[in-house]
Amino acid sequence: MFYSRPPIEPFGWDLLALPEPNGSRNFDGLTSDMRPVDFRFSGGWLTVEVGPPHASPDGDDMEEVLSIQIAPFGVMDISPEQICDMLGLTVNGRRIAPGLLPAGARGFDWSGRTTFWRSTHMLESGADARVLVQKMVDAFPGAVLIQPEWGSHARMRCRQIKFLMSTDDLATVAVVYQKHVVDALLDAEEVSWEEFGNAFGYAIEFIRDDRAGEDVTGERPIYARTSALGLKYRTIHHRRYRVETRFPTADVRAQAITKTLLSILDEHFCRGLEIVDLNTGARLEDLPDAEDTQTYSRALRDACLAEPNRYLFVGVQGTGEKPVYFGARPAG
Question: Per-residue pLDDT tens for 137-196?
């Protein structure tokens, strides 16, 4: 998914003062016609609620007028000035510049000058990740693989690798770079995260997105119950990885590189899930699942479809007397 300046129509509201922080995720505001406003930023989502004039901001008559994802999950910080700039709000008739977050804040560039891409994918546990990363390296002449290792105090050391191994959790595909800068990066005992981030003109981050030992299949919590019911199924072990990159929005070369990257991802992955009742084998249509927005590799699809009753993940819907145990498999 691309992130940059979000496409929000200006609200045109005038506030009496900048929104005031209220807890770790909320900001309170008051319009010049005395309407309370609640701004909430959490998990990359910005939500805005507004009430009638002179209403309580905690009242039941607050109405949600916006809920939009404006940044990747993991972005934690936003400033009142950035909120006003994105939503087209003024303070006492004065337009507000977005300003900058304090050093060390986990924020984002919502100016529109930078575009960020992030996608999350399911891959096989073996060579699948190595094959995908190699496709990226081969697509860009001169690209090299750099692997950082985190230390303490936001510092790291780096090495160059020839290929990704199944035990590797992350790697950076350096596409545009100056050789002497990368050489200095590799020779240094330690570098800061900022130095690492600034070493490349264009880089693709490939990062394992599940923790080692995490049950990505969802089988562990329901295994005893499904076994007691005699349900026959197998889940196929896999991993989640995310792909990230950022580039100056107006950079034509970076746009072309990103287009190539997306074509690689489109070729390697597919999407669409079939949700099946594990008890009856019937296909279910009314069980929404957030995982359906993710993609799985063609290799993982083929491995899952090679045998009947094999699923990417399983789960349970409902907690009453007749919960539905379901499995999710590639749509075919």
Answer: 999 999 999 999 988 888 999 999 999 998 899 999 999 999 999 999 999 999 998 899
- Sequence-distant (6+) residues with CB within 8 A of 156 are 148, 149, 150, 190, 191, 192, 193, 196
Full set of structural domains in the chain with CATH: 2-95 (no CATH), 114-213+238-267 (3.30.310)
Q: Which residues on adjacent β-strands are paired with residue 31?
A: 15
44, 72 contact by CB (below 8 A) = yes
H-run or E-run covering 240: strand 238-248
| SS3 state at 120 | strand
CA angle 311, 209, 216 (to 5 degrees): 25
| Cβ-based neighbour number of residue 52 at 10 Å | 13
Q: What is the pTM of this model?
A: 0.88
CA distances from 92 to 14, 17, 95, 96 (A): 6, 7, 9, 10
